[in-house]
Amino acid sequence: MSTGKAGQADHSADVPKAETRGRRPRRTFLRTTDGVTIDAVYDPGPAVYDPPGAESDHPAIVMAHGFTGDLERPHVRRIARSFSPFGAVITFSFRGHGASGGHSTVGDKEVHDLAAAVAWARELGHRRVATVGFSMGGSVVVRHAALPDAGVDAVATVSGPARWYYRGTAAMRRLHWVVLRPAGRLVGRLALRTRIHHRDWDPVPPSPVESAPLIAPVPLLVVHGDSDPYFPLDHPRSLVEASGGHAEFWLEEGMGHAENATGEELARRLGAWLADSARGGR
Q1: What are the distances in angstroms from CA 150 to CA 8, 72, 147?
Q2: What distances in angstroms separate CA 196 from CA 185, 186, 207, one per listed residue?
Q3: I need a surface site. Which of 51, 83, 85, 121 has the fewest CB within 10 A?
Q4: What does the alpha-carbon distance between residue 275 and residue 96 come to, in Å, rounded to a whole number?
Q5: Which of 205, 221, 227 is nearest to 278 (CA)?
Q6: Are 41 and 69 in contact (CB under 8 A)?
Q7: pLDDT tens across 170-190, in order?
Q8: SS3 for 29?
Q9: Residues β-bridged to residue 90
Q10: Average pLDDT of 19-32?
Q11: What are the tens digits of pLDDT across the range 30-49?
Q12: Which of helix, strand or coil describes residue 261?
């Protein structure tokens, strides 16, 4: 499955005109450049006043969830609340997840979904936008940030893979069964609430480790637990090495995988890093 070029969202369903928009929570459906509707939520974060229609120095943090997640999952909402003291927060459900349309391509065309969410943050007046992704979402934010028109100011990947088709752990062998087998996709749809596309990638998209060298000078943070049951430590270390020393690496002692393993203290550290880096403070 080919990504093509990840462009901006065609439109969002209920974004008011610039002269009337305010900093208030809202939920909408975005439309990607390849025509998929994406369920998205905006939380303005700390109380700020911007003149109507003005751009804001208040950063926006766009959060990309992991495979089988969606914006309503408790761990996604919990982390979004931890981010909110540091800026506005946009959460969204990837295609094939939750109320979004389409089918999951497990990290390929999802760059279009992230691009639509970043474009929405810009439409809402945020001049500084940071992205953070967990597991599959981590691969998406890295690939998206490598695009010449990504328009992001800071990027963090948490528990993300460095390369595709990894089957070296039992957890990843189970995931491949869910994605590649008809019976597995049925389990994904009925038990995991995730609609998975049946076609193989053609062509294979650039991997995160191939994308990492293209992100500088945008700040890049790689976060990984030393007890991750999906991806061992050679994955984050490969990303850091591929960045040419540009990436910052946080190795978290005792941490497992992705959102479920991200505690309050780590989430707040992440939020502070994202906001500070997006403002150019690092």
Answers
A1: 9, 26, 5
A2: 6, 9, 20
A3: 51
A4: 29
A5: 221
A6: no
A7: 999 999 999 999 999 999 999
A8: strand
A9: 42, 62
A10: 77
A11: 999 999 999 999 999 875 54
A12: helix
